[in-house]
Amino acid sequence: MSSQDIPEENLPEEQAAAHGAAGHGGTTALAKRVDDDPFHDPGLPAHKPRIQDIDERAAQRSERTVALLFTLSMLATVAFIACFVIFPVDKLVYIWPFGRVSALNFSLGWTLGAALFFIGAGAVHWARTLMSDVEVADDRHPIEASPEVKAKVLADLAAGNEESGFGRRKLIRNTMFGALALVPLTGVVLLRDLGPLPERKLRETLWAKGKQLINMNTHEPLRPEDITVGSLVFAMPEGLKEDDHNFQIEIGKAALMLVRIQPEDIKDKRELEWSHDGIVAFSKVCTHVGCPISLYEQQTHHVLCPCHQSTFDLSDGARVIFGPAGHALPQLQIGVNAQGNLEALGDFEEPVGASFWERG
């Protein structure tokens, strides 16, 4: 590329002067310098206007195209929600070349993909056809901007906003807002797929007044004499069988541990009232993330969760004395029935296990 191919206004001052002095004849010293320097600044090419810049009808066609793409995104989002409601989880359909696939997953994937694609396509088409495409060169400046630079930036932002037509082209603006507002609904709808609402299931267990405490090892009713000082015994509610289809769910809430403590060593007044002859019953489910508690230290009356080392004092209302657990272990009030077996006098008064949003 020779200096004759470079507009004079884009050349440095000394090169422009030499260019004017050399005229149009032959190869000049300046041209040789430019040819020998592969890193010279050629300047910006002349701006070529687009059809939308000179024809308002073309601009309006582009505006309608962008609005159509945003509208298609909104329709795809509505279709996503409709497919989530219409198709059952177990429905299979044949789709070539994939074979038999889940109708729900297939439809959700395509509709969500379409919703996101049309938003992106609309934004790209808007930028390429209606927003300003004039290239602007700006010299580097110090990191700390001067007041003049700050004022220039604000002016550039205002100019960019004006050139984008965001305020004037209300059709594009409104359809874009609609598409962006509807797309997040896909994520909200997917939350429903986490499972049925728990209702009261997190607050209630199988324990109830009159239910006997069954030894989880012998499957026999527990009697007070079965529990000695220093021992740790695990119990489950009467009527729960290991071959029940919901055994794991129910035992995960109702699992109980019992220890015998000398009544004079029990510090918490309510714990003493809810015990029987020093036998106290607490939930076996750790209040951190729900691990089963299984380690008991007789001298201190502490129990330790093996997962994350949360430690509870069973002589003081099973309060947390160490670790990440958020609250004490719930206590079950117990007594003895006419047959001399230990029984529950009700359910836990608070939810067992880890905390959840609705927990009081």
TrEMBL record:
InterPro entries named among the record's database cross-references: QcrA_N, Rieske_2Fe-2S, Rieske_2Fe-2S_sf, Rieske_Fe-S_prot
Stretches with biased composition (Acidic residues): 1-12
Mode of membrane association: Multi-pass membrane protein
Alphabetically ordered keywords of this record: 2Fe-2S, Cell membrane, Disulfide bond, Electron transport, Iron, Iron-sulfur, Membrane, Metal-binding, Oxidoreductase, Respiratory chain, Transmembrane, Transmembrane helix, Transport
Top-rank lineage group of the source organism: Bacteria
Transmembrane segments: 66-87, 107-127, 171-191
UniProt feature coiled coil, ranges: none
Localisation: Cell membrane
Database matches in Pfam families: QcrA_N, Rieske
Limits of the Rieske domain: 274-343
Region ranges (Disordered): 1-51
The family this protein is said to belong to: Belongs to the Rieske iron-sulfur protein family.
Job of this protein: Iron-sulfur subunit of the cytochrome bc1 complex, an essential component of the respiratory electron transport chain required for ATP synthesis. The bc1 complex catalyzes the oxidation of menaquinol and the reduction of cytochrome c in the respiratory chain. The bc1 complex operates through a Q-cycle mechanism that couples electron transfer to generation of the proton gradient that drives ATP synthesis.
Protein name, per record: Cytochrome bc1 complex Rieske iron-sulfur subunit
Organism: Streptomyces yaizuensis
